[in-house]
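During the reporting period, our protein records have gained a structure token line. A sample record is set out beneath this paragraph:
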Amino acid sequence: MGLAVGISAALVITMLVSYEFGFDRFQAHPERIFRVVTDIQMGSVQGHNATVPGALSQAAQELTGIDRIVPMLRMDMGTMSVQIDQANGAIKTLSADQVIFTDANYFQLIPYKWLFGGNISQVLKNPFQVVLSQRSAEKYFPRQPLSSVVGQHITYNGLMLTVSGVVADLTDPSDLEAKEFISLQTLNKLGAADQATLNSWDDWSLSLYLQLAPGTAPQQIEHLLNNIFTEHQSSNDPRKISLHLQPLHEVHFDSRYETPGIHIADKSSLYALLAIASFLLLLGSLNYINLTTAQASKRAKEVGIRKTNGSSRQQLIIQFLGETFIVTLLATIFSLLLCPFLLKLFSSFLPPGLTLDFLWKGQTIGYLSLLVISVTFFAGCYPAIVLSGFNPVHALKDQSRLLLGQSRQLVLRKGLTIAQFTIAQFFIILTLIISKQVYYVLHTNMGFQQEAIISFSIPNKSHRAALKQSIRALPGVAKVSTGFVAPAYIGAAFSDIIFNNGKEALKFTPQVRTGDEDYFDVYQLQLIAGRKASASDSVRELMINKAFMHELGYKNPTDVLGKLVHYGRDKSLVPIVGIMQDFHTQNLHAPISPLIFGVEPGQTFHVRLAEQTNAAEDWQQTISAIRKSFKKIYPEASFDYTFVNQQIAKFYEKERATTQLLNWATGLSIFISCLGLLGLVIFTTNSRTKELGIRKILGASISNLVLLLSKDFIRLIIIAFSIAAPIGWWAGHEWLKDFAYKTSINWWLFLIGIIGMVGVALAVLAIQTFKAARANPVDSLRDE
């Protein structure tokens, strides 16, 4: 059981780590593929962006040393729907799936298998073309052969496109796996805002990948790109902006350039997982050693008889190693049976592409074979050497004297037990610290109302006012607003601001939020000076938060009121009319950032539900009524809502998953450590059988004997705690450094850890020591 737990943990964690490190390893020459990213320095504030100005893609065409330039624009799936004309004249509406705007170079960079369509270099050359993956094609055109999909029409948010090709879905993990590919040139046929995505030096929406020519140094291309950008950067921009070539193998692990929709793995977490797997596997092996040698007294006569009948020590070692191999093989088979359960248990922690199919890959089978051999050798060598080394005369005559003579083994077992409980208590302390921080961030006041608020998007702006009025009239609705995203959002939205302080024009890039005149009431945002901006169809007045006020160089809120700033694509002058109280726009890893707010309706609805006696049931009734109002105006669109507090909780999915993983690692380590403790107790009670018998005859009670046997083991646990406590404090302190706002590491966390561990250990001790203390002393004293 101990081995199976250790092997199961090692197998699942190795599957996860192998999967994460396997991202984007299948391209031809991946070492020559880079993503262009942006680093921004503004005073003491550092920013990072995974996108670049659209015009950079065109300017890079002039450079030598680049084999392939691949621009990409990811689409927000929250508001994108697809309409398909049916044969009977009806229109089917579905949600889009991982849509990007790109060109044919994308299919040269990523080795998609081409199923149907024309020349790969021509399929996305013209505007209004789209290539579908096999999964998307089958979703949009079910029961049709894929060959008939090419040439058919699809409408994305009112934009009609022609299918020019179908590609097979990728089978290897990749961060570049899109499902639907629209011609990048389509943007040039749309409005000015979309054209700016490709042609502007101020629109930072485009992702850009480069495949360098053989022998080209990335530093050389990086230098040339920065020279091009500097030529087009405004001279009054106070920001220090530099472009950087990020190797493809780092895209999956660098959270500084996180992109919505792309899963980012943390290398330190993966290495920590490997350490956990190694510890659990080590604990399982150590327990096998402890339990096997603790039961040596039962096999001493067997060894003596075998040696007397002519067995060599080598034969005995092979026998015991063979037994260990069989046990390890059975444990491995059992661990394979546990894997589906463990994968389901850790589904929230595992990436969506990791499935049971990974078990049957050649590398996994090879890993398991190596694991069985390694564990057999490691766990079996010491017991085999110990058991085969028994003196046959002593083994046949006096087993207890044989065991009493092995004091060095007892010292080793105590050392192993301390090591096991050190690991277990380290996990306990770290779990308590991380759990406390997760509770803290989930219950910290973000500076705005987040409870009982739902948000959803509408497909277009038509009938927006009518829907708002309809929802406002519902009895279960307290407030309703339309605008941009919620105050705190998993992504980031920025806008350039130019402010003249009387000496020079300075450029800033604060975060931006917009909403209509009711947005403040829905989220209960607070003003500390001035007034709310006037209602308008476009932003004509601005409010800023205290953080931006300080960045502008003002300490008194009234001093900044009435100041003019250049805002928007046309850089028109708008006044600052209000100062807002600061609130968190992102998770608590980051400090509160400068922000501007403009009053402007949008396509996202924010609805605060009324307080109810039976909240869950009444809210569902209200949401059903909102859905009916939505469907009445947009019958073909999908009504997808989320609670704002649930969106905020998603900020900390990684931390919550880490807590869940540590909970299980802690439980498993305690379980395995208690097995080790049980092995040590069995060994000790077997070696002290006669002592216990004599003490009992001389008047010792069962409670005296239990206390006698237990105090030594409790001492081991306290020694382990004294080692684990400072290590756990250091690890927790280092982990908390990633948060700008964090909880404290209290002394009572360590007290809970030691009390819990001692309690569990006492329960294990009581079973075996009570059994030994109750034994008839006559049996132990006359046994020869």
